Records
---
Amino acid sequence: MTKRSLLLIAWLCLACADVTHVLLTHAHRDHVGGLGFLPNAKVLGLAEEQPNLDEHANGRRIDQAIVDGEVLTFGEHEVRVFSMPGHTPGSAAFLVGGALVLGDNALLTGDGTLAPVPERNSEDPAGVVTSLVRLEDRLVSDDLEVRWIVPAHSGGVEGRKALTDYAEHQRAARLR
Ligand SMILES: [Zn+2]
């Protein structure tokens, strides 16, 4: 290992120790496997996600259960919590500074179209659709500005339009 690599690891370890909070969009292994590197972080998540945390992040507990509609405050920043059951029972989305953090609730395709994650990856695929449509309803009814949509496994897109288009398509399909 080079001296530069050792320095980088040392820096990362110091930075990891400074992380005070982790907000869980959900607890699949690829989202919580690194929690062991954050020994001082308080884990915030929906209580329904604890079984997945048990399975994928040995020994970690949700330190602070959060609920749908809650607004968390971190210094000057507010984080609004949305329950999104479907991909997992305790999936969540967060709106912070205009960024809608979607986790694995949806992906953006190459042309900027929003789509649910592949059905095989979700515990309740129909629930994913319902949660995405409900999310769009709430963003509109609560007059919340979305400047960026940020899924976990694809690039982001500016504005709320991709989610609105998806929700309108789903509503039209239900009427057919
Ligand atoms: Zn996932």
---
Amino acid sequence: MSRLGCKCGNALSNVNSPSENILYVWPEELIQKVTQSAADMSAFDFSTTIGDCDYEVWYCQNCERVAVVGVKERRVRAYYNRVESGETVPDVSGWKVFYEISEMDFDRIIEQNFEIKISDVAQNCLRLWLSPDQRQVCIETLEGTNQLIYILEEIVPVKAVL
Ligand SMILES: [Zn+2]
């Protein structure tokens, strides 16, 4: 159980599970590896074993900031959503691809079908692209067309929040 203070003043928490402040973000290569080698693996087993990465991704519903907490390095990378109309989307070729789903949506899917495979859940995930310098993130929208652009705002040490 953890809490994380957002820069906007909002207090994020995963005390209630599922939490609207938690996002699951998995590298595409991890999803691909599993769907090739263990195609029948359930989403639940995946999320509690190999999908348990050494970072946590927190989302603030108040200001839409995203905080990536490196559990081992004890650093928080804060990203804000850059909203500018008419902006060109960066060329994401060569960027690392991730699959993202909120803990709320993930739990809802599991609740409907506990046996559902991770490969099927992956199809309900949005994709995001992380730039090689980790300063920019592009996120696919639900429409699959436009992309939200997130910019690295700061890297700070983990305080006594975890
Ligand atoms: Zn916030």
